[in-house]
């Protein structure tokens, strides 16, 4: 796919492009926060600030202006980055959690951040002297909300900041297990929102759920044991049959007949066809019109993604597993396009690698067995199972980005020609925006009865 074609597709789907800021030294990753219904309700922004190159000491040339634009400070760069369109779009309408340092908290530019869109996380090392408490009180009066982050014990800093915190994020892996039930009970009685941090297994989720936690941060939902309790969106064999049909050159009549066997997929297809990006000037009311408006390539991609969809017919942008799959797949595609000699075959293979990289979470059994059922090509299988080749390296990089493991991203970039940490993070935001926009922009009228 050419650069122009990619830009046109991105514009049609209503997502921002990759905007490179030459002064930028701040990168963001996002991590999902789920509610008690296992639906997305927020994202935490993980911030990475790369070292700023030293300013040149050479005198300005005769034709250069006598004064240069001053470089942003470290805190100003973070605030500027948070306000960018790509970051806002990546949140997909959900609130954001942003960890603040002491320097960031005292920067007056902080008030440019909308109080209603972000909650500020106060880390344990921030301290709680009188000056900081006064600043928190000032911002609290301006309706800014605070979260006590990474809590594992109730020390003096915790006690002094607690009255101004709306929520408490408890590290499930560090807090002494003997004190956890009583600690959670006291905080709930005090009216605090409880967020379980580090939830990477179904067992930890169930422990926090039974202790009446309100929010859960971690990737337990992407593991087979976490997906076991999910309702399936449609019979898996029906989706696989449709994917096999799409692998050839089906007629509209064949697609229509196969799609009618999958009402959930039809519902989302109608919404997609009526979305602002694909609208044909009037409301699509028949399945045949939806097929023609959407195209087989997009139908194939959303069929692949709907393997992950929850069966409760929730909005796709609130489904954490589908959003993770969509973001990972789109990132893989965008990243391959930035590498030398990438063509349509490479971008399609990259998308498939991302979308099927944790398909065992919905099928159960081993990942290798599931990939055998899907009959994927050897490079895709090797990338998923062994992390081999460029696709394997990119898959390792996007997994590191999901964790906010910046050192691992740097190691991966060393094996990828022309890609830096900031590029990876920026493509991650663009991919997240793409994943979150397709269903949100659809008209509710698209859910009306589908006529034959």
UniProtKB/TrEMBL annotation:
Origin, by domain of life?
Bacteria
SMART domains in the record: EAL (SM00052)
Q: Spans of biased composition, class Low complexity?
A: 52-64
Question: Taking every annotated instance into account, which residue ranges of this chain make up the domain HDOD?
Answer: 232-422
* Taxonomic path: Bacteria, Pseudomonadati, Pseudomonadota, Betaproteobacteria, Burkholderiales
Ranges for region Disordered: 1-22, 52-73
Q: Return the InterPro entries for the record.
A: dGMP_Pdiesterase_EAL/HD-GYP (IPR014408), EAL_dom (IPR001633), EAL_sf (IPR035919), HDOD (IPR013976), RNase_Y/CdgJ (IPR052340)
Please give the name of this protein.
Diguanylate phosphodiesterase
Q: Which Pfam families does the annotation name?
A: EAL, HDOD
Where do transmembrane segments lie in this chain? Answer: none
């Amino acid at each position: 796919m050419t650069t122009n074609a990619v830009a046109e597709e991105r514009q049609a789907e209503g997502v921002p492009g990759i905007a490179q800021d030459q002064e930028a030294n701040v990168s963001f990753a996002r991590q999902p926060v789920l509610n008690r219904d296992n639906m997305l309700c927020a994202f935490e922004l993980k911030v990475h600030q790369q070292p700023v190159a030293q300013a040149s000491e050479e005198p300005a040339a005769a034709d250069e202006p006598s004064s240069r634009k001053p470089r942003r400070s470290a805190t100003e760069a973070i605030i500027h980055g948070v306000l960018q369109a790509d970051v806002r779009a990546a949140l997909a309408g959900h609130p954001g959690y942003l960890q603040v340092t002491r320097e960031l908290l005292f920067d007056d530019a902080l008030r440019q951040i909308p109080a209603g869109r972000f909650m500020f996380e106060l880390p344990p090392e921030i301290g709680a002297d009188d000056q900081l408490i006064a600043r928190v009180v000032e911002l609290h009066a301006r309706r800014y909300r605070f979260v006590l982050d990474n809590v594992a014990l109730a020390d003096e800093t915790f006690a002094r900041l607690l009255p101004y915190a709306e929520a408490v994020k408890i590290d499930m892996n560090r807090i002494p297990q003997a004190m956890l039930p009583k600690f959670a009970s006291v905080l709930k009685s005090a009216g605090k929102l409880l967020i379980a941090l580090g939830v990477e297994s179904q067992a930890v989720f169930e422990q926090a759920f039974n202790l009446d936690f309100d929010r859960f941060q971690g990737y337990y939902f992407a593991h087979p044991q976490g997906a076991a309790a999910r309702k399936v969106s449609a019979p898996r064999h029906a989706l696989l049959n449709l994917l096999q049909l799409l692998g050839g050159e089906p007629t509209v009549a064949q697609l229509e007949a196969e799609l009618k066997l999958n009402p959930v997929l039809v519902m989302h297809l109608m919404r997609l066809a009526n979305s602002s990006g694909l609208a044909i000037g009037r409301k699509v009311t028949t399945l045949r019109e939806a097929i023609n408006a959407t195209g087989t390539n997009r139908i194939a991609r959303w069929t692949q993604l709907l393997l992950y969809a929850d069966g409760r017919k929730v909005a796709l942008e609130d489904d954490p597993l589908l959003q993770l799959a969509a973001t990972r797949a789109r990132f893989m595609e965008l990243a391959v396009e930035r590498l030398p000699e990438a063509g349509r075959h490479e971008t399609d293979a990259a998308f498939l690698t991302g979308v099927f990289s944790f398909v065992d979470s919905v099928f159960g059994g081993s990942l290798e067995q599931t990939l055998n059922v899907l009959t994927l090509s050897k490079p895709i299988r090797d990338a998923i199972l062994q992390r081999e080749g460029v696709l394997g390296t990119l898959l390792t990089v996007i997994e590191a980005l999901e964790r906010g493991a910046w050192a691992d991203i740097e190691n991966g970039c060393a094996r990828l020609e022309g890609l830096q940490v900031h590029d990876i993070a920026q493509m991650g935001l663009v991919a997240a925006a793409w994943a979150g926009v397709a269903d949100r922009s659809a008209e509710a009228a698209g859910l009306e009865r589908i006529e034959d």
